[in-house]
Amino acid sequence: MIDAGSNTFGMIRTIIIGLILMYFFSATTHAHRILFETVERPPAATIKAYFSRTSPLADAAVTVLAPGSDQPWQTGRTDKAGHFTFLPDQAGDWVIRVDDERGHVGSTTVHITEDFLHLSRHPAADNNREAHQVGSAVVREADNGDLKETAKSIEKNSQHGDEAFPHTEKALTGKNIDREIPLTYRIILGLAIIFGIAGFLYGWKARQNLKNANSAH
Amino acid sequence: LKLNDPAPAGNIYIITMHISDGILSPGICVAAHVVSVGWIYLSGRNISLEDIPRMGMTGAALFVASLIHFPVAGTSVHLSLFGIAGIMLGKRAFPAIYTALLLQALIFQHGGLLVLGVNALNMGAGALLAWLIWEIGKLPESFRALMAGFTGVIVPVAMMAVAFHISGYGRGIFYLFSAYLILAIIEALLSLSSVKLLSRITIQHESAMKK
């Protein structure tokens, strides 16, 4: 251990300031949580896995578990944009586990309804999409408070025959992501907590030392 | 074992020093938490007053360091600074590392709360070994600083690779290692420059005190 007294703090302070500056000038910062979007449109269910709007989980291993089963029902890999599509054949909650084999895992569920299965088996019944809209899209984790609105916008978009993930642009270009606490604030929060803990312990220890010194007299 | 394909252009993969929740069995995670708490207790015994702000400062540096990414061989790695933490804090490094990881898990979603103990032990082991290397008196200071910085990265990565291997991963390990070897060299240089800076400041401080 280096014994440089208070100068150690000065140096560490310099390092911290340097690191913060480096952070602001570094091009890539990432949260490591995996976010999911799902779209169920008979007969297929599709998920999109991503870290942020610029980094999808490409070529990640996917395991699909059928409702009530813990054995893999299907395995595969996501495409370059983080998509994975499968054909559910039972109603219930399908669990999809994604693993990029670099230490990031995440899972999401896709809820399959009887209506979905009916439309899968009888595509003709799907002629009138407006009447039988069962496709729903949910931005999970990134957006929990706004499910209804998102689903509504999907419904509206799919009536116009848009591509799958009509909301993706919207979800990924700001609205939902921005609702999280900005990274800068999270950094400040973390630093404040650490300095708070250290300050509390310092005061407590100093008080203890003072008491010991007083009782020695 | 084969190397991973290089990442497609415009898509930077992140490999992380943190193990995510859901990879290791809950038993191992709980055991690691218990050991971590014990280690924190042992590290905190007979602590001196001036160690506390030093630990806080180093913890803050560790917390922020993980946000600084380097593009390495088609992927991206982030700083760890465990070697420097070992040099600065010695056996008191573990509580700082644990706190930094806890806040990273809570605030940045790096790693996870369940697996926090395992991550902290991996990285604490790196800092501890870095400190032991730093304390070898006979070798020149620069060499010890370089080795401490290097150890602070390579030991946690090696332990993490073992953990991944135990839980059935094969494919990513070599790739992980090669990318982190470069990070280890970066951190070795960083640790050397920190030690040089610190000893220069100390000398200036002492001469100023004499006047």
Description:
- The complex is a heterodimer of chains A (217) and B (211).
- By secondary structure, chain A is an alpha+beta fold.
- Helix content of chain A is 39%, strand content 24%.
- Chain A has helices spanning 6-25, 114-121, 147-159, 168-172, 175-178, 183-216; strands at residues 35-41, 44-52, 55-56, 61-65, 72-77, 83-86, 92-99, 105-112, 137-140.
- In chain A, strand 7 (92-99) and strand 8 (105-112) form a beta hairpin.
- Chain B has a three-stranded mixed beta sheet, covered by helices on one side.
- In chain B, a hairpin with a 2-residue loop joins strand 2 (69-72) and strand 3 (75-78).
- Chain B is globular and about 60 Å long.
- Chains A and B meet through helix 1, strand 3, strand 8 and helix 6 of A and strand 1, helix 2, helix 3, helix 4 and helix 7 of B.
What labels describe this entry?
heterodimer; A: 217 residues; alpha+beta; four-stranded antiparallel beta sheet; 9 strands; B: 211 residues; mainly alpha; 7 helices; 67% helix
| CA-atom Rg of chain A in angstroms | 25 Å
Oligomerization state: heterodimer
Number of helices of chain A: 6
Largest interface: A-B, 57 and 69 residues
- Mean pLDDT score of chain A: 70
Counting DSSP E segments of at least 2 residues, the number of strands of chain A comes to 9
> In what range is the share of β-strand residues of chain B?
under 5%
Shape of chain B: globular
Q: How are the secondary structure elements laid out?
A:
The complex is a heterodimer of chains A (about 220) and B (about 210).
Chain A: H1 6-25, E1 35-41, E2 44-52, E3 55-56, E4 61-65, E5 72-77, E6 83-86, E7 92-99, E8 105-112, H2 114-121, E9 137-140, H3 147-159, H4 168-172, H5 175-178, H6 183-216
Antiparallel strand pairs in A: 1-2, 1-9, 2-3, 2-6, 4-5, 4-7, 7-8
Chain B: E1 13-14, H1 26-44, H2 51-65, E2 69-72, E3 75-78, H3 82-89, H4 93-108, H5 116-135, H6 141-166, H7 173-210
Helix pairs in contact in B: 1-4, 1-5, 2-3, 2-4, 3-5, 3-6, 4-5, 5-6, 6-7
